[in-house]
Amino acid sequence: MMNEVRNRIAARVARDIPEGSYVNLGIGLPTLVANHIPADREVILHSENGVLGRWHRSGEGQFDPDVINAGKEPIHLLAGAALFHHADSFAMMRGGHLDICVLGGFQVSERGDLANWHAGDPNAIPAVGGAMDLAVGAKRVFVTMEHVGKNGVHKILRECTYPLTGSRCVSRIYTDLAVLEVHADGLHVIELSPGVTREQLAASTGADLIFEPVLVA
């Protein structure tokens, strides 16, 4: 996925984070969300390796190698941010203290099941990290992902075919094509990306979609 598209998705997620929220940012695309939250909005970011507060990506040659996010990317801490023990960080995740977590995804089902730690390849190294703790511990789970995988493979499905990270845990899905919200009756389309039609989105999704009045970003 091109950096422009990744940043567009991250900025779209940032728009939906309310004032006063405690928000975990997972590895990969979710880490970009930190750069798109307005400076005047009070949002407390959390990283599973033990960071709490506000930060942004460090510039080249201007970083402390000991200050990183969960993806081992160097970050610059803003005033008021804190570093603390990994165990305390997981206690926050498991204790229901996070309002939102933003995670990447391999697959999401129409019921909100999430698969993001193993793609079924027998040669792949499993990388669950703290995703299972976040999926069940956060009040809302936002997933960022490409809508369609390599060779046109559907990533949003009626049923996940990869091992699950969490069951019925996803609240919203943000992709390069649309923003979807998970409800008891299925996937509601709340926004289409510029240039994307309903027909294109339906053909790119392996589950039924419910089209209500849809915004175009």
Automatic annotation (TrEMBL):
Alphabetized SMART domains for the sequence: CoA_trans
Pfam families xrefs: CoA_trans (PF01144)
Recorded superkingdom: Bacteria
Matching SUPFAM superfamilies: NagB/RpiA/CoA transferase-like (SSF100950)
UniProt entry keywords in alphabetical sequence: Transferase
Transmembrane regions listed in the UniProt entry: none
PROSITE patterns, per database record: COA_TRANSF_2
UniProt GO molecular function: CoA-transferase activity
Similarity remark: Belongs to the 3-oxoacid CoA-transferase subunit B family.
NCBIfam families: pcaJ_scoB_fam (TIGR02428)
Name this polypeptide is given: 3-oxoacid CoA-transferase subunit B
Organism expressing this protein natively: Alicycliphilus denitrificans
